[in-house]
Amino acid sequence: MYERKTPLAIDCGLHLTREVLNGKWKPALLNAISMDIKRPSEMLRLLPGATRRVLNVQLKELEEHGMIEKKIYSEVPPKVEYSLTEIGWSLMPIIDAMNQWGDTHRSYLETVITQAPKIGEVSKSVCQGYREMFARGETR
Amino acid sequence: MYERKTPLAIDCGLHLTREVLNGKWKPALLNAISMDIKRPSEMLRLLPGATRRVLNVQLKELEEHGMIEKKIYSEVPPKVEYSLTEIGWSLMPIIDAMNQWGDTHRSYLETVITQAPKIGEVSKSVCQGYREMFARGETR
DNA sequence: CAGCATAGGGATAAATTTATCCCTATGCCT
DNA sequence: AGGCATAGGGATAAATTTATCCCTATGCTG
Questions:
Q1: pTM to 2 decimals?
Q2: Among all strands, which nt has the closest C1' to B54 (CA)?
Q3: Residue A78 beta carbon within 7 A of nucleic strand D
Q4: Given an 8 Å threshold on Cβ–Cβ distance, is A14 in contact with B99?
Q5: Cβ separation of B120 and A4 shorter than 8 Å?
Q6: Is A12:B102 a contact under the CB 8 Å cutoff?
Q7: I want to staple B7 with a disulfide (CB 3.0 to 4.6 A). Which of A85, A114, A123, B70 is the partner?
Q8: For residue B55, what pLDDT is reported?
Q9: Domains in chain B, please, with CATH?
Q10: Is residue A17's beta carbon less than 7 angstroms from any atom in nucleic acid strand D?
Q11: CA-closest candidate to residue B31, choices A41, A12, A81
């Protein structure tokens, strides 16, 4: 396994939090789990932009950091369910705030992000949003 | 300049926000600026773990995203001051929440983060904290 | 039987982010 | 004159994170 080489900065709250939330899909995963999307296959459907591999990796890190818990059912086909731990739940206000902030400023953000120098292509259908699915009754 | 190759995911608030806050020092920089640490050299002193180069890069991205504004004084030696824009200020509740969450759970987080498999060395003096400096009257 | 669904993970490549090093410029101070 | 402080950025290497591909396993279904 890969082993970090640069010292990790964890001496201010900001860095500790960043360490936990750092990962392309981690906030989205926590959000999903909080909305009762517990099975990896469901998460994968919700986040078509992500690969099974990446989700596995990031879920494992969240679990190692104690933000989520994994329950394995001895069935076939395999069944696994994740849930937020207490400390994981305590992150939700932050996740919610991030979600709201992004939605509130969506049009502005889309503009500046899209116009930033290093931007290439932009995908707009990576995370369909639970609400839409919910609206169509496809959430389970 | 580097140009992105994978499509950027910006369709849910979480991803938009992540895009803006994603950078090792960005949250810390926003926090610093909000506390009136406006000059690059001051920030560098506050964050000894960072290089001038990285700060420059991340400050520029924050500026391109419209979170901060740069004011250049035509003096010698050069003087530059950053300040939060209105939308930049609107991020502060999130930054504060992240900061608080990290501090609140510090001992737990230090443990799990330190014990995670891929961890090597850990630096504990990267971001000394404005408060300490302030307490010693070294903040200006 | 062939194929699907479920979940997990190794190996490796590619992409992206950070780190290093070096160079520019100009007054002031010793 | 030589060195410091200030701010910026190019070029390139190293580190880190994501993406791709492939393989395992087991009942059920058509």
A1: 0.89
A2: C18
A3: yes
A4: yes
A5: yes
A6: yes
A7: A123
A8: 94
A9: 13-135 (1.10.10.10)
A10: no
A11: A12
